Amino acid sequence: MLAGLSMPRAIVVLSWPILLESFLNSLVGLTDTLLAAQLSTSATGAIGGASYILWFIGLVIMAIGVGATALISRAVGAGRLAVANAAVGQTVLLAIGSGVCVGAMVAMCAGWMSGVMNLSGEGAADFTRYMVVMAVGVPCSSLLYSMTACLRGAGDSLRPLMAMVVVNAVNMVVSFALAGVDITSTHLVNDVTVTRTVLHNPFGFGMGVKGIAWGTVIAEAVGAAVIIGMIIKGRSGVRLKARRLRPHWHTMMRLVRVGIPNFLETFGMWVGNFFIILMVGWLGSEVTMGAHIVAIRIESFSFMPGFAIGVAAATLAGQYLGAGSPVLARRSMLVCTGVASVVMGLLGVVFVAWPTSIAGLITSQPEHLALVPDLLRVTGCVQIPFAIGIVLRTGMRGAGDVKVVMWLTWLTTYGVRLPLAYVLSGVDVHLPAWLGGATIHHLSPTRGLVWLWVALCLEIVVRAAAFAARFVQGGWVRARV
Question: How many CB atoms lie within 10 A of CB 436?
Fold first, then answer.
């Protein structure tokens, strides 16, 4: 689908649908957070904590998707469509199998995880309700995002966008209907909280957190059906054929060989960030957790352009390397990094200039409005290095350089991110009961959530420098898929 296009044109053709798709993908999580914020601070904290478990689910899906994108983009670049179609079929098998296993594990561990995340009372109950329902939809979610990765590897980012439009339309309508809450907007006027109703809920279901979860599950099931129908028709250049659904161990092992290092990389990052979410819980209550998650939801709109352009870099690098042109692969990575830096840098300025107004669009809780703006100001200052790290890391994954990406991610997460977060936040560490239940008091006073975010953003700068060094060194162009 990219044949005959110049590099700038190919970047535009690939990235704008991915950008909109990423926006819509984030909108699914944002819708859940927004509806939860209308319920209570405990519901917001519960769904915020659940987002980290959903991130773990995404790691498995992403590992399959990275393998699919790398293998299909190389095959398409070399003109080997039979290999690409075989990869599509085996990706379907891996997606369904892993989705069933991960969903079952999440459902069984939901209650235990609420305790680990320091949730209690209604917050713990909401967390468990939400996660059990979400676990039901994991196989459909796995199919949806794995097939999206297949289409991107073939150079088609438009049809995944169409599928995500359907997902969001269904999610917003069904989640809103089932949750039974009104949509409100809150602003601070002369230090007084003013709330107005934006949209009244006429439905009488009143399912609360469970309704929010069922809306997401139903939406992703519909999206999976839509994208499977698209890939069966084969208009993207690759096609799902029934005979390709028989296990083909050589192709499956190629997918796994790329996917496992990526999973280990992102799992290592997830474990590191799980310690971060524990620190957030130790710093305060569900209010602190809710403010942290609301800020992350807002921040996600800044790194969506970086992610979109990074996926374009991954597809182009893979196809150029498949066609035997490492020079063009390097050039595509540089151009994509420059574009992402400009876009995300401008969004960083918006975060610094208007943080309170932005936060008021997402949450109506005064406790959140007292914390979130400061977090947005901090993250707004590091959007350019954030862009560099996102694009170079994603592009190198697409080129198949997954092992080095894994080691760099682990080194920055455990060597920089966690130590800095502990030192700058001043948090006391509370050991679980099976480790004695003791509290390790920090030597300095607790500085709070803002300083924790300062530490996270400093690590982003270090990570960007590490991936830039790998790009300049050039070993990623020789990676085997």
Answer: 8
Distance CA 129, CA 109 (A): 12
Which of 326, 467, 397, 338 lies closest to 8 in space, CA to CA? 338
- Structure tokens of 313? 């870099």
For the chain (481 residues), the mean pLDDT of every run of 10, in chain order, is: 65 73 71 76 75 78 84 84 91 92 89 75 85 92 91 84 88 88 68 70 84 92 94 88 88 85 80 84 74 84 83 82 84 89 93 88 75 91 94 86 88 93 83 62 75 94 95 84 61
DSSP of 384-423: HHHHHHHHHHHHHHHTT-HHHHHHHHHHHIIIIIHHHHHH
Query: Whose CA is closest to 277, among 410, 119, 442, 457?
Result: 119
pTM here is 0.70
Nearest by Cα to 68 from 37, 90, 46: 90
CA 104 to the chain's CA centroid: 21
Question: Pick from 343, 62, 347, 35: which is nearest to 205 by CA?
Answer: 35
d(CA 156, CA 2): 8
The answer to whether 357 and 188 have CB atoms below 8 angstroms apart is no
Give the phi and the psi of residue 187 in degrees, each rounded to 5. Answer: -135, 155
CA distances from 227 to 144, 146, 150 (A): 7, 10, 11
Whether the CB-CB separation of 155 and 71 falls below 8 Å is answered with: no
